[in-house]
């Protein structure tokens, strides 16, 4: 199987490589810094490449040798631009593990070119956004005339990674987002907060600009979409005040200070937390008649799911030459039960 994992030295990149090797796969791994990539390659007996993303011709010279690249290097709002441009030149399928709305929207805009080049482009092949995208598809199949969709998720028993925190720092001072009447609308972060029943427990959640604001609309065409995540109530009230400080949060001084803290203190959940943690997904759909349907889903911990689901999708795309070229979302291409291919996942 000829595929490349780029960003293999990052937290999620490393555990994806580990998972690939456990499954008997032999990807080539790559990244910007040899001192970080070579030890991983040596530990697992894998070939490796060293290249940055500032020279399109150089990237193309590497990617043309692979049928697919799985991009694990964030922030994806920066890395997708050179990567996607290169994939369109080299004829390489492109996957990544983003949850950033702007990344999905950026990739979707290349739809015609992607089809012309006969490749598949699929962003968000991990926890962002496979479980929620499958939930959206699952509910839409039950109510095809739906006009409104709410999605929510909560992680239990694990903590956040360095890469995810870095993306969050990059997003500080920015607005939230929902889908309203078919269009992405900017809102304050956490503009709605409420308690959501995940089946096993009720948890306070607030709205966030999650990738499904883009992907769930592509998958289902539902015009009104909101996404929630579990937060402590005190964090919610702090977020409600964020708009007062947005100009400060956007300054390079504050971001650099926050990034320095992240670099020093944030590493991500260890193996024990990844194995024991779980994620809960909630969905509610409604139509113009006022009818509603709810559903719930439980999956393994988010980073564990990301590593293994990214590889499930990678193998599907590399092995099945009949899949249609183009920009796709996970559930739109593979169906609502894609998430059930991840051991430990079940609709409740």
Number of domains: 2
Sequence of strands across the biggest β-sheet = 3-2-1-4-5-6-15
Mean of the pLDDT scores? 89
The 3D shape can be described as globular
Give the beta-strand count.
Answer: 16
CATH-derived architecture of the largest domain: 2-Layer Sandwich
Write a structural description.
The chain contains 15 helices and 16 strands. The chain has helices spanning 11-22, 34-44, 56-63, 76-90, 101-108, 111-116, 130-142, 162-171, 212-220, 233-240, 246-249, 252-265, 271-276, 302-319, 330-334, and strands spanning 3-6, 28-31, 48-50, 68-71, 93-96, 120-122, 146-156, 176-180, 183-187, 193-197, 202-207, 224-230, 278-287, 292-300, 326-327, 346-347. The longest helix has 18 residues, at 302-319. The chain is globular and about 55 Å long. The two termini are 35 Å apart. The model is unreliable at 159-172 (pLDDT under 50).
Layout: helices, strands, pairs:
Blueprint: E1 3-6, H1 11-22, E2 28-31, H2 34-44, E3 48-50, H3 56-63, E4 68-71, H4 76-90, E5 93-96, H5 101-108, H6 111-116, E6 120-122, H7 130-142, E7 146-156, H8 162-171, E8 176-180, E9 183-187, E10 193-197, E11 202-207, H9 212-220, E12 224-230, H10 233-240, H11 246-249, H12 252-265, H13 271-276, E13 278-287, E14 292-300, H14 302-319, E15 326-327, H15 330-334, E16 346-347
Helix pairs in contact: 1-14, 3-4, 4-5, 5-9, 7-9, 8-12
